[in-house]
Automatic annotation (TrEMBL):
It comes from Nonomuraea polychroma. GO terms for biological process: chromatin remodeling; DNA repair. Keywords: ATP-binding, Nucleotide-binding. This is O-acetyl-ADP-ribose deacetylase (Regulator of RNase III). The lineage of its organism: Bacteria, Bacillati, Actinomycetota, Actinomycetes, Streptosporangiales. Residues 1-164 form the Macro domain. GO terms for molecular function: ATP binding; DNA helicase activity. It comes from the Bacteria. Belongs to the SNF2/RAD54 helicase family. The keyword DNA-binding does not apply. The keyword Oxidoreductase does not apply.
Amino acid sequence: MSGRWRTFHTMISYVTGDATHPHGQGPKVICHVCNDIGGWGKGFVLALSRRWPQPEADYRAWHRSGNDFQLGAIRLVQVEPELWVANMIGQHGIRPTKDGPPIRYDALDRCLSTLGDEALSLHASVHMPRIGAGLAGGSWEQIEPLILKQLTERGIAVTVYDLP
């Protein structure tokens, strides 16, 4: 991509809305952070499960299989012809410990790097709530630079949705 166009994508678009109804044209990936213990039932996953059964079913089957189900891993689940959900394992357990909140920034960074590869191959934009900053207990000030580095600086359009 030429420098002129590349600079156009170095920012994250922040909008008010529901990330399960992503804006814009073309292929899209909705990403979110999952835990590494197989728990699905609070937060953004509830909105996902209300729209599509596949992401939860795939996550639970992936957890049962044990196949690469670990921090830093992701799986893309197609839910519509040009729409995927990325289940990203970036959270250790579900409760804060003496070591801090469940978010694992290094694992989230690896997830986002892989997501960037997938989004580029699909020619897809990426859509998300404020991943890792809800139940995972992370700081958006630490998460946003990871998104910039792994997605927008690679020319991937990213939209972050805040509920009204």
